[in-house]
Each structure stands twice: as C-alpha cells, then as structure tokens.
Design a protein that fits this description.
CATH architecture of the largest domain in chain B: 2-Layer Sandwich
Radius of gyration of chain B: 26 Å
Structural class of chain B: alpha+beta
Largest interface: A-B, 79 and 81 residues
Number of domains of chain A: 2
Number of domains of chain B: 2
Distance between the termini of chain B: 11 Å
CATH superfamily of the largest domain in chain A: Formate dehydrogenase/DMSO reductase domain
CATH architecture of the largest domain in chain A: Up-down Bundle
Shape of chain B: rod-shaped
Order of helices and strands of chain A: HHHHHHHHHHHHHHHHHHHHHHH
Number of helices of chain A: 23
Distance between the termini of chain A: 53 Å
Strand order of the largest sheet of chain B: 2-3-1-4
CATH topology of the largest domain in chain B: Alpha-Beta Plaits
Oligomer: heterodimer
Order of helices and strands of chain B: EHEHHHHEHE
C-alpha cells in the first residue's frame, strides 16, 4: 500500500537493504575506528588550517598591506575566495530545500553531507569579509547597533550590508535546518551507543528526540516550511553577493545579468564540490548503497543545466561588451581584450573549465562514470574560482585611466590564507564524516519500500517481498515471559555447541556483567542452561540466532552488543 | 488512577499502520506511537489533529517584516537620513526599494528561527532532555505502540498479538 513507484525509476537504495541495515551502515563510520588514510588526510588538513590561521594572524597583526593588493586592484584573492566559498555553499540548501519541494527522493541520500558542506563552506566564506576589513575588531560596525561614538547607524542602502544580513541569515537558517534533520539520526546513534561518554554526547546532541508520532508530524511540516523559506533565501544570497558588483560603476561589474548568472554559477560550483566530496565519501565510508550512480548522474544533470546557464551568461556578457562599442568594455573579463591581454590564461582557464569540459556530461557513459565525474568536478571547482578571479581582478586591472593599468600578483600570505581555508574546510568535513550520521537515515528508511532495489525487484517480478508480505502475513512470536514453551530440541542443540554447565563442579558467573544482559535475560539464559562466561564466549552468529529463536526477545541484540566478545574479556 | 500501559512492538511500518487502525476501531486508547522514521499517514490513522506550526511560521514572518519596516524607517529615515549614492532618503516609500533585501532577510530569519523554536518547545526537545522512547530499538527498525490498559489486560494482550505485534510487554507508567 502506498509504496508503489514506477518500475522505470531506477532504485536509489541498492544492496538489498533492510531498515536495520541502514542503521548499521550509517552508524558504522561513527562506531568504528578511523583508518590510516583518514588520519593522513586529517593531519594534512590540520596543518594547512593552522598554517592559514598563522597567515591570518600575521595579516591582522601587520595590516592588509601584506597582501598583493595595489592602488587599482583593491580586491583580489580575498573576495575571490569569499565568493567562491559562498557559491559552493549553495548546493546543500538547494538539494535539501528545492529538491524537497520538488519531491525528489534522491536528495535523501546526499542532503545531509551537502548541507554539512554548505555550512562549512559558509564558515570559510565568512572569514574573508571579516579579515579584509583589516581592523577586525571593528567588525561590529556591520551590525545594526547604534554607534556609541554618535548616533550613526549602519548604511542599509549598501549591498555590502545586505550581504551581512543575507549571509548570516543563510548560515543560521541552514544550520537550524540541518540540525533539526539531524535530531532523529543522532537519536539513533544515541540508542545504539555502548560507551557511556558516547551515549552522553549523543543524548545531548539529539535533544532527547523520541520519535513520537506528533513529533514526526511537526518535523515534516517544519521541514517543508523551512524548505519553502530556504528556497528563496538561497537564491537571495548569491543575488545579493552579485549586487556587491552589479551596483557599482566598474566596467564589467555593473551588469544586470549578474544575479541570475551568479545564482546559476553558485549551484554549478556547489554541485561540483558535492560530487568531489561524495565520490570519495561513498567509497571511504562504504555508502555505495545509498549514493548510487543515479545520484551521481542526477547531480551531473544539474551541473549540465546550470553550467549551460552560466555559458549563456558568458556569451551574453561577451556580446553586450562588444555591442556597446565602448572601448572600456573591450577590457572586461569576457571580451576579446581579456582573451588576448595579459590575463589570457585566466580567461581561457574560465572558458575551458566551465564551459568546454562540462559539455562531456552530455554523454551518458561519462556522466554515469565515477572517475570522469570526479575529474570534471575538479575542473569545475577550479574554473569557478577563476570566474570570480576574472570578474574581480581582470575588471579592476583595466580602468578608465590607462596610466593606472596594472596587474595583480598574490603574495605568500594570500596563498597561505586560501590554502588555510581549504584545510579548515576539510578538517571540519573529516571530523563530520566520523562523528555525524552522514546519511539522513530516517528519511532514507521512509523511502526504502518505494525505492529500495529489493522491494522494487519484488514488485516488478512478483516474487515474495524481502520480508514477509506486510499485511497478509502476521508474524507472531511468543511473549518473552513464556520460556517454558521454548523448544527443547533447540535448547539441547545450543548447549551441545556451548558446552553444558555442571552445577556441582562449576561456579556460575554473574552474566549481568555482560552489557545487554539484564536480570531477566540472565534468568532466561540460566533456564536454558547457560551460566558461565565461557559458554557465552563460544557463541557465534548461529548460536545467537538459535538463542533468539528460543527466547524470542531482543532479536539481534546479542550480536549487536557482541556478548561473546564481552564474555571472553570478562572471563580472563 | 492506575496507569498501566501495554507496549506492542512491530517490525514493519505497514503492519503498524493496520494495527493502529484496528486498535482505534476497537476503541482502545493509543497513548503514543514511537517510530524510527516518519510513517506517512500515521498521524491521520491515529486521529492526531493537523499541526498548526506552518501558521505560526507565517505569523512570525509577518512579525519579522513589520520589525524590518519599523527599524529601517527609524534608522534610515527618522533618526539619521543620509544621501548615499543619490538614493532618496526623504520618505520611506522613496527609499524602500533599497530596503527590500533586508526586509526579505528579516522575514525569513524570523519565520524560520521562531518556527523551529516553537517546534522544539511544543515537542519538548532541547539539550539535556532525556529521551522518552521506551525501547532503544524504536530509533532503529522497530515501531512501538503504547496503549493504555483499562482493566482489560488479558483481552488487550491477545488483541494486540493478533494485530501482528512481535513483542508485548506490560509496563507501569509513572
């Protein structure tokens, strides 16, 4: 009932998953230990981050004269990096909000990580406007508080101030959206946690989520309304970022096409970054069942569309610049002057990375190929950085006064700060990958029956559903109190394997010391004839199943808590 | 008042749904249902009223918009009018187009945050709150229905068994 999905739609959860499998797969990276490659990546990122922090401290201590800025080019890498990071921060909300409004189920496998990426990217973006003020301690001037030096307020006519409001609203709303979605998943981790400290932390993070029906009802309504609010919000953010340029009088900047073009570019670069991260993550965290070829292909289609919009915007900018006949327009970032001038390499990097290479995605073979996708995504990341560099530096390098024409060369500090934000971003993301449920498992479970490969196959071929046909078969197990009924044969079978207990020669152990065995379970085990750690320690998957079938209570519990492992430790 | 409840555990959302309908049809009181993920239609089957949280969000949005208008007018028109880039500052109406981005952001800011806070308050979820799900498996793959016992323990137990419950326990509720 209600789970039907057209067979033509490819499954988006593969690997014959059950609800419990989803739990295990999502919990595995959190409960397991980090491997060597994680530590190597983390160390590199951490060093880069600290290096960048050093460079930022040096900048603040000395002044922004340590950057390569000059009289003419008064914005360069700082704002390039700012716009690049903000742009990357667009995919997360687009995936979680816009795709939710469009009822796209495939968003559920990737929205959590895309949102995390958004938030971490906006952190990086926020650093640049702050440090480019030079006197960061005056940063509160951007807040609408009456100035204690007089009754002067901030200037609400300025796009730069709109930016402050847009970015902070975007960051805070994305954070809240993300966290609300995380509550049920943190609760899942909390309820599985075996170490007290872990339990403590995840209890705190999950806000005591219990999964009541009313809470779910509100949860879904809140998600929907937040999606409705976040959709115009995400579009507004890059629109307003583009106003920073579009409302100015610099040739190449004062262009009315900027808002839609910037938004498309942001989505374009954001999806490229999602591809970059998730293609690695699905391998490292064994999430191939949830981030499938379908997800990758769909994202590539979004990249193709938004890349197409961006390419059309480039063409129109190029055309309009030429059509005005103004000699100043011949030096804007999309012009013949730029293509052949001193910044020809930046111009062509932009064109090739953003408009030529992504066209490969028209081929289905390429857009469904993980390696190709990864390579193309890297090119787009680079190309979109160059787009912002071109807009800022090329346009500023050729002004109305030819004697001021100049070029920009970044200093060591410029480069260090940029690498530092990359490091900071990956530090956050790597920590996230090991401590957060990286798949929105509650949502994924809700689409398992409609979009899981096992369920789809069963429906299409008419074979039995992976689990008993829901309504028809009513599975009945005895109530746990009724041990007397337990099958004698099974019990004997179990004791054969574990060894029996001789009351006269052996001493019974306190089985309650094993986590997961309570007084009641101990009693049950004793009735079966299990009294010692030695016996429990011999249990394997077979015995657990046998035990489950005898007791009928807490199926899978023994295996999950690893009673045998615990018992062997207690024995020694 | 004696407050004994029966906990019936299910391992399938469709079985749970039909069980909820059966229990309701038999006029037993469902105290609560705990599920690991949103089961669509469960609220209707349980007879829960629709949530009004979207309406509160709208009201918060209106509040945010009004607040933005009020404070932009106060700051930019009343208290400290400035001529910036020729943008007229003599009246709110003339200067308004430049305020649209801020008005929009404030609307969203109020609507989103206050709605989420309302959700947390109404559902009583916040840091350091203890989880109330009676069985940890209900955040994994099991579904738990809590039904109040009204002196009909035996009957209810067998009734719930027939609805497809895989485990039934009787609990005291404090």
């Amino acid at each position: 009932m209600g789970h039907y999905e057209a067979p033509i739609r490819e499954p988006i959860i593969v690997g014959d998953k059950t609800y419990h499998d989803i739990t295990l797969d999502v919990a595995a990276p959190i409960e397991g230990k980090a491997n060597k490659s994680w530590w190597i990546a983390f160390t590199i990122a951490l060093v880069a981050m600290l290096w960048g922090f050093g460079a930022i401290a040096y900048t603040i201590g000395t002044g922004i004269g340590v950057w390569g800025l000059n009289n003419k080019i008064n914005w360069a890498w700082d704002i390039t990096n700012f716009v690049w990071w903000v742009g990357i921060g667009h995919a997360g909300t687009l995936i979680s909000a816009v795709l939710l409004l469009f009822r796209q189920k495939w968003r559920m496998g990737i929205n959590r990580s895309a949102e995390a990426m958004t938030i971490f990217a906006v952190f990086q973006a926020g650093l640049f406007p702050l440090i480019h003020m030079g006197r960061i301690w005056n940063g509160f001037y951007t807040l609408p508080i009456p100035n204690q030096l007089g009754s002067l307020w901030v200037n609400f006519n300025s796009p730069l101030l709109w930016d402050v409001f847009a970015i902070s609203t975007y960051l805070s709303v994305s954070l809240v959206f993300w966290w609300t979605g995380l509550l049920p998943d943190f609760a899942m981790i909390r309820d599985r946690a075996t170490k007290p400290f872990q339990k403590e932390i995840y209890s705190l993070l999950s806000f005591g989520w219990s999964g009541k029906a009313k809470d779910w009802q509100r949860f879904e309504e809140v998600s929907l309304v937040l999606a409705g609010l976040a959709t115009p919000l995400v579009l507004s953010v890059h629109t307003i970022v583009s106003f920073d340029f579009a409302t100015s009088v610099i040739p190449g900047w004062h262009s009315t096409v900027y808002p839609p073009y910037f938004v498309a570019g942001a989505v374009f670069s954001g999806f490229a970054m999602v591809q970059t991260l998730l293609l690695i993550m699905r391998k490292v965290s064994n999430l191939e069942g949830y981030i499938t070829r379908v997800h990758i292909e769909n994202m590539n289609k979004v990249i193709l569309v938004t890349g197409g919009i961006v390419a059309v915007a480039y063409l129109s900018e190029f055309f309009v610049g030429w059509y005005t006949g103004s000699s100043y327009e011949d030096f804007t970032y999309l012009s013949w002057g730029a293509a052949t001038g001193p910044y020809w390499w930046a111009f062509w990097a932009l064109i090739i990375c953003n408009s030529v290479i992504p066209q490969l995605l028209w081929f289905k073979k390429i857009r469904t190929n993980y390696i190709w996708t990864f390579i193309i995504a890297i090119f787009i990341n680079i190309g979109m950085w160059f787009e912002r560099f071109d807009i800022i530096v090329i346009n500023l390098s050729r002004g109305h006064l030819p004697s001021t024409w100049t070029q920009f060369s970044p200093t060591f500090i410029d480069v260090s700060i940029f690498l530092g934000t990359l490091g900071f971003f990956f530090v956050l993301f790597l920590l996230y990958a090991r401590t957060f449920p990286v798949i929105a498992q509650a949502e994924v479970k809700s689409i398992l029956k409609s979009s899981g490969d096992n369920y789809k196959r069963a429906r299409d071929t008419g074979e039995a559903l992976p689990k008993a046909e829901p309504i028809a078969v009513v599975e009945k197990t005895e109530i746990p109190r009724v041990e007397e009924d337990s099958d004698d044969a099974k019990t004997n079978n179990l004791l054969d394997k574990l060894g029996s207990f001789d009351v006269n020669t052996q001493q019974a152990d306190d089985l309650k010391k094993v986590k997961g065995i309570g007084p009641k379970m101990e009693e049950t085990l004793n009735q079966i004839g299990i009294y010692t750690f030695a016996q429990v320690g011999k249990m394997t998957k077979n015995e657990y199943d046998l035990l489950d079938s005898i007791t009928g209570s807490f199926p899978g519990r023994a295996e999950r808590d690893d009673w045998a492992g615990q018992a062997n430790k207690l024995k020694s | 008042m004696s407050s004994k409840v029966i906990h019936a555990l299910y391992d399938d959302d469709d079985v749970l749904m039909s069980a909820v309908k059966e229990v309701r049809a038999a006029h037993h009181h469902i105290e609560e249902v705990y599920t690991p993920f949103p089961v669509h239609g469960l609220d209707k089957a349980m007879g829960l009223a629709t949530t009004r949280i979207a309406i509160t969000s709208f009201l918060y949005g209106v509040t945010g918009l009004s607040f933005a208008v009020w404070f932009l007018n106060l700051i930019m028109i009343q208290e400290w009018p400035q001529n910036i880039g020729g943008k007229p500052s003599f009246s709110f109406a003339e200067n308004m187009p430049a305020f649209v981005p801020i008005m929009f952001e404030m609307t969203v800011f109020f609507a989103a945050h206050l709605m989420v806070i309302t959700f947390y308050m109404r559902s009583k979820i916040w840091p350091f709150r203890k989880a109330l799900n009676p069985d940890p498996r209900t955040t994994d793959d099991k579904f738990l229905m809590e039904v109040t016992i009204d002196g009909n323990e035996e009957e209810l137990t067998s009734f719930l068994e027939n609805t497809g419950a895989i485990e039934i326990t009787i609990n005291e509720k404090e």
